[in-house]
Amino acid sequence: MEKLFTKIANWVAHIAGMPPTFAVCCLIVVVWAVSGPFFGFSDTWQLVINTGTTVVTFMMVFLIQNTQNRDGAAIQAKLDELIRVGKGHNHFIGIEHLTESEVEEIRDKCERAAKRHDEQVASMAAKKAVAQKKKHAA
Known about the structure:
This protein has 138 residues and is mainly alpha-helical. The protein contains four helices and no strands. The protein has helices at 2-16, 19-35, 43-85, 100-137. The longest helix is centred in the middle third of the chain and has 43 residues, at 43-85. The chain is elongated and about 95 Å long.
C-alpha cells in the first residue's frame, strides 16, 4: 500500500507541477466563467467551482506534503552521510529531530564560531599585509 501511494503521490506531484496542467486548470476556470450566463450565475453554478477546487486542494495538500516529507528525509540522509564521511562534526547528525529552540541554539553557536573564524582570517590577512609592506619598504 505504501509503495502504491508513493508512486501515485510522485506521479500526481509531477503532473501537477507541469505547465500544461496549469493551462488546463485555467481553461476549466474560463469555461466555468463563460458558462455563468447560461446558468444564470446560480448558486449551483458557483457551488460547482467551489466544490471542485476545495476537493482538489484538500487532496493535493496531502499528496504534496507526502512528497515534501520524503524529499526532506532523503536530503537529510544525504547531508548526514556527508557529515559522517567528511570533516563536519558528527553531533550535527540527527539535529532535525530537536525542538526549534534547540536547533536555534545550535545555529547561534555556529554563527558565532563562523564570525570568530572570519575575524581570525581577517586579522591574519592584515598582519600578512603589514609584513609584506615592511618587506617591500626595506
